[in-house]
Amino acid sequence: MPSDTPVIRLTTAQAIVRFLVNQFIEKDGQLIEKDGQHIEKNGQLIESQRVCGAGFGIFGHGNAPALGEALYEARAELPLYRGQNEQGMGFAAAAYAKTHLRRRFAMCTASAGPGTANLLTAAALAHANRLPMLLLCGDHFATRLPDPVLQQLEHFGDPTLGVTDAFRAVSRYWDRITHPAQVMATLPAALNTLLDPADCGPAFLALPQDLQGWAYDYPAAFFAPRLHRIRRPQPDPVELATAVDLLRQAQRPLIIAGGGVQYSAATGDLIAFAEAHAIPVVETIAGRANLLWDHPLNIGPLGVTGSDSANVVAAKADVILAVGTRLQDFTTGSWSVFAQDSRIIGLNVGRHDAAKHLSQPLVCDARAGLAGLTAGLGAHTAPQGWCQNAQAQRQIWNAYVAQNTAAGNGVPSYAQAIGAVNALCGPRDRVVTAAGGLPAEVTANWRSLGIGTVDVEFGFSCMGYEIAGGWGARIAQAETEADAETVVFVGDGSYLLMNTDIYSSVLSGHKLIVLVLDNGGFAVINKLQKNTGNASFNTLLADCPTISAPFAVDFVAHAAAMGALAEEVTDPQALAAAFLRAKAADRTSVIVMRVDPHDGWTEQGHAWWEIGTAQTSPRTSITDARAQIEAGRSQQRVAL
């Protein structure tokens, strides 16, 4: 570089951290949130927030000496939360980004070898859910002088191949830094990926242990504060005109509202669009709480874990406007919930999602697309009878949910627990769950009280996300809505898989309310076994032939040992009283209740779902179940 260029001599690790703490975010020229930072734009000082709002880290020999040194010096600007395991840290980072609607992300750092490998599942979750997450992970030495080093995997024919290469499949951006100067190209590229509305996902940087500490004279300008803005791609005029024509011709139009509506901050725009044109709205799992539960145009959740109301209306719709959804199989009922001749308009910022199943693509930002459609449709509205029929279906579903969630006699159900908690939540309380039977039960039965307050992780359906994700969500929530609660629903199976971030929440002072609903094993898969004609096998603890004597875990004592307040209740009424105590408490509370593993499931609202079954078996229950499942295939759309 020219000799008169101002430079700063920093290690590679110091340069990475200094770059991160000087990146700020705005959207649409407006302040997102105040944190005392000021950036000059067009000659004016404006307040902004750091785009990398937090870090999660576990140190080892692969990241503590150099990257740890850099993070220590920046601890005031970039708070680093100590995780209990790397996978949980990644889940917390994913939930942090989701809570901030992808406008802020968290960084994760792990040591070389198993520490880094533990982040693979979390990276896959973030990739599937299109969530930004920056992974800074230790790698073997760039010089290779000490090879093979502790925890290095040796590939005899390729010395460059290691654990970090496994992240190529689960990252939107991947790089291995081999020279300090590389970060000047890599960091902006990684940040562009993290903030891109279409390509958003994990960015992974492999950092050789020696290179982290190598010094280089960086141009000072590289570390100047920068203000970023998430772009809003505008619709193509031809695609927009085609979509308008389809909606004008529709006799039975329907809107599917996905998670992308929230990431675009377009929930208000979607509601206004639906109201202006009298079009019913159904929600995906990721799009739950796009509308409040009692909005007259909210017809319910769609698909396999949906509602009868949404599925009945979807089957009759002739034109479907899919906004901000990737149309995964639980939304589409493995493509069985729509009429064979219905037309789909894919309004999505990602071209891959916009064109699925021969949809008419409308590739643009959700807010921009809805604005264009509104202008094109003018005063046009859907036929009055269509909307009224859809609303009548929703009233029937509301009555079912009220009955399904009401406390009754006998062993409580998931739905009854959900109803008891739902009735006591405030409009900004956030509910978090994932995997097992709870995503279906929460999606079907939860009545959304506030926009964007439901996080059902079903993109990767990852056990263990619940408590760790709740912790990350609470950290983000505390930055904007400190008085709201974060409520976690978790089954006993997921709790046993990953529970140590109860301890994290206690240590960091980020209060959670955790509902542990114990059904004695992996009951939802036991239900699947029975529904496909199989015997109960290796799912419920009572049905595991390798278990000599089932043992009941004392979840209360376990949670209390990690510093949480904990109690067990036996019925929904006692659960409600315990929940009020938890809301009044000053730290994380865990409430345990046993639920029925066999009965009490939400039986209505399900669409057909394609599942692999045995074509031949000595058991007639298997072949009979397969025949019944295959009979539903007649409704499955085929993209020709």
From TrEMBL:
Residues 241-372 form the Thiamine pyrophosphate enzyme central domain. GO terms for biological process: inositol catabolic process; isoleucine biosynthetic process; L-valine biosynthetic process. One of its GO terms (cellular component) is acetolactate synthase complex. Gene3D superfamilies: 3.40.50.970, TPP-binding domain (3.40.50.1220). Residues 457-592 form the Thiamine pyrophosphate enzyme TPP-binding domain. Keywords: Thiamine pyrophosphate. It holds the Pfam family TPP_enzyme_C. Belongs to the TPP enzyme family. PANTHER family: 3D-(3,5_4)-TRIHYDROXYCYCLOHEXANE-1,2-DIONE HYDROLASE, THIAMINE PYROPHOSPHATE ENZYMES. This is 3D-(3,5/4)-trihydroxycyclohexane-1,2-dione acylhydrolase (Decyclizing). The lineage of its organism: Bacteria, Pseudomonadati, Pseudomonadota, Alphaproteobacteria, Rhodobacterales.
